Amino acid sequence: MKYTFLLYSDPTGFAGLTEEDWAREKEVYGAYIGALKAAGIFVSTDWLQPVATATTLSTRDGKTRIEDGPFAETVETLGGYFVVDLPDLDAAIAWAEKCPAAQYGKVEIRATAMGDG
């Protein structure tokens, strides 16, 4: 079963990070990715551009509306994700607990609705 870990955090917490801080963050995430790969459960990941770069589109009554910014105005924003292949929710929870984002934000776990494919 594939699970997606949606990584949410408050982007203001990253505002003062130096290049050295970012390098350490990348090392921490690199180690987590390495552990997922070593366990044979890694499928994909991505780190998203800041929420200020988002564009939101909706179509209602045949009219398309395009807005700058995210879908929802919240403090915590979606910053990235991991897709992993695990046997069950308990295993997904165990791996999400190890995700660095859990230390300063939230990790939402969702099972695929498309089965194993």
Report on this model:
Strand 3 and strand 4 form a beta hairpin. With 117 residues, the chain is α+β, with helices and mostly antiparallel strands. It has a 4-stranded antiparallel β-sheet, with helices on one face. It is flat, with a radius of gyration of 16 Å. Helices cover 26% and strands 35% of the residues. The protein has a single domain (2-111), classed as Alpha-Beta Plaits. The longest helix is centred in the first third of the chain and has 20 residues, at 19-38. It contains 2 helices and 6 strands, in the order βαββββαβ. It starts with a strand and ends in a 6-residue tail after the last strand. Residues 1-110 form the YCII-related domain. Belongs to the YciI family. Pfam families: YCII.
Task: Report the CATH C-level class.
Answer: Alpha Beta
Task: Classify the fold: give the CATH topology.
Answer: Alpha-Beta Plaits
Global structural class = alpha+beta
Please tell me the total number of domains.
1
Terminal CA distance: 9 Å
**Major β-sheet strand ordering:** 2-5-1-6
- Low-pLDDT windows of residues: none
How big is the Rg? 16 Å
How much strand content do the residues show? 35-45%
User: Count the helices. How many?
Assistant: 2
Biggest sheet record: 4 strands, antiparallel
InterPro entries: Dimeric_a/b-barrel (IPR011008), YCII (IPR005545)
Family: Belongs to the YciI family.
Domain YCII-related: 1-110
